[in-house]
Amino acid sequence: AQSVTQPDIHITVSEGASLELRCNYSYGATPYLFWYVQSPGQGLQLLLKYFSGDTLVQGIKGFEAEFKRSQSSFNLRKPSVHWSDAAEYFCAVGRSNDYKLSFGAGTTVTVRA
Amino acid sequence: EAQVTQNPRYLITVTGKKLTVTCSQNMNHEYMSWYRQDPGLGLRQIYYSMNVEVTDKGDVPEGYKVSRKEKRNFPLILESPSPNQTSLYFCASSLDMSTSSPLHFGNGTRLTVT
Asked: B81-92: per-residue pLDDT in tens?
């Protein structure tokens, strides 16, 4: 079975600074990888996904993520955060042969002025 | 507007009193799923449905029931709620069951069982 670890429970970052959220997965084959964002009181929204090909994927809201097979990681980055990026972020891994998605525990991002 | 609608948004109930949380999507999606979100645990899948009249258990199905009589609706039923079912619940749908189809989430239902 696959699993996902998000090592950072909470990150505080200054507005305009860069942000990196870590995600490590465990899965025997090539995984499908996702990052979702949850704003307060809202459901989850897809930021980006990786299935194959270029290991650097671009998403919405200026986010990008890099798949590193050797490190079993799929870290999310943004060069310059905005106050509206304050939210909870979830990494998820899926199997290629069905729709079994496993979510990480989430990382809460606080943006200070 | 394409959306997944859950009702109610907030629900407080007592142990043992049957309840239903409704979920409806207007995107003609085949796949629908229920998750619960608990602090430190992320989202865990309760049940999912691949199409009308086809449902299957997720990771934490105990104490829950679902039905899929119509494509657009996927209600979550708690026959006899218990305090350990206090949680934030999300319904989600996607075009099909392939992992390449992104999930569309409802805004959640916060359930408290006393």
From this structure: 999 999 999 999
Q: Do B102 and A34 touch (CB under 8 A)?
A: yes
Mean pLDDT to the nearest integer, B6-31: 96
Cross-chain Cβ contact B31/A43 below 8 Å? no
A19 contacts A109 by C-beta, under 8 angstroms: yes
Q: How far apart are CA B54 and CA B103, in angstroms?
A: 18
C-beta neighbour count of B7 within 10 angstroms = 14
B103 with A46: Cβ contact below 8 A: yes
Residue type at B16 in one-letter notation = G
Torsion sign (Cα): A4, B87, B102, B56: positive
Q: Measured between CA atoms, how close is B106 to chain A, in angstroms? A: 5
